[in-house]
Amino acid sequence: MRSLSKGNVSIGGLVGERIDRCIENRVMTQDIERLVKPYRNRSDGPDGFRGEFWGKWFTSLVLAYTYRPCPEIKAKLDEAARKMMETQTADGCI
What we know:
By secondary structure, the chain is an all-alpha fold. It has four helices and no strands. It has helices spanning 13-27, 32-41, 52-67, 71-85. Helix 2 (32-41) packs parallel to helix 4 and helix 3 runs antiparallel to helix 4. The radius of gyration is 15 Å and the shape is elongated.
């Protein structure tokens, strides 16, 4: 057995439609700045989360890119990683 490369699996029907809608309407629409803000401010956000949501969302973004590699998702991945790395302090803490 071997793994398939990115984008070699496509799911059709109702499940495929739901996956596509989730990517388009949930994963891709998240405001990266809002997710990174608690790291910039070093405090919990108004919703009471700090890192948990960013990590879960970023994982979903990676999985979306693995399922459907496209420039838009790749750009969002790069932006999210860059903005998170910008929060790093001099001692390396994020």
